[in-house]
Amino acid sequence: MKLFVGLDVNSFDIKVCFLNGEGDQINSFTVNNDLPGATTLSDENDAFVIADYMRFGRLPMSVVKEEQYVALQQLTRARYQIIRQITQEKQRFLQYLSYKCNTFTEDVTSSVFGKAMLVFFQESYSLEELSQMDLEELADYLRVKGKNRSPDAEQVAKSIQKAARSSYRLDKVWKILLMRFLPRLSP
After folding, report:
1. Cα Rg of the chain (Å, integer)
2. Residue 129 CB-half CA count within 13 A
3. Residues of the chain with pLDDT under 50
4. How many domains does the chain have?
5. End of a domain among 46, 73, 100?
6. What is the predicted pLDDT for the residue at 174?
7. Are residue 117 and residue 161 in the same domain, yes or no?
8. pLDDT confidence of residue 30
9. Alpha-carbon distances, residue 173 vs 98, 136, 150, 179 (angstroms)
């Protein structure tokens, strides 16, 4: 035998109605509601209607979550959102990096988001300065900023210089294009 229970919770009391599988009312009663935050439904008919809806499967079953699971769910959602934001910001950073030095992510053998590289990006070196910088000086800089964690600072320094030399520079590209096409435009 199936039993359906309807609860109508309001500020002062809870009205309870029990129905069997055929919809016959078995029992109904009212108890005091001492818990805050009760809903505003107000009569035994509501409890009957709720039990009847449950009998026919018209109301979705809601899961009452324990406090610890709600907190865990909120923390998990917050972590997911933070990870999504970090991923978006990293993608945006890589896009801006490709504007500055388009071959950097292809040529450089180190992680772009490592400690030494992030400190390196905060410096205001131009691509010209990087390509002309002493290789040993650049490798020492990477060692110091990376706290000697880089397995091969010289190789990373070489790859940075290669990227700086092989990347196109918009200012030079524009000058070359203007010099090439301006004579054709003049009468």
Report:
1. 35
2. 7
3. 36-38, 40, 42
4. 3
5. 100
6. 61
7. yes
8. 80
9. 15, 30, 34, 10
Structure tokens at 89: 């910001």
| pTM of the predicted structure, to 2 decimals | 0.51
Angle at which helices 153-166 and 135-145 cross, to 10°? 120
Domain, as residue range, for 69: 64-100
Cβ neighbours for 20, distance < 8 A, ≥ 6 positions apart: 1, 2, 3, 4, 26
Q: List the beta bridge partners of residue 139.
A: none
- Confidence at residue 182, expressed as pLDDT on a 0 to 100 scale: 62
30, 13 in Cβ contact below 8 A? yes
Burial category of 47 from C-beta neighbours within 10 Å (exposed 0-12, middle 13-18, buried 19 and up):
buried
Q: How many CA atoms lie within 13 A of 76 on its CB side?
A: 6
**Residue that the structure tokens 């109605």 belong to:** 17
Query: CA 120 → CA 49, 92, 102, 124, distances in Å?
Result: 68, 18, 17, 9
Q: Are 10 and 33 in contact (CB under 8 A)?
A: yes
Q: What is the pLDDT of residue 87?
A: 93
The strand pairing partners of 28, in sequence order, are: 17
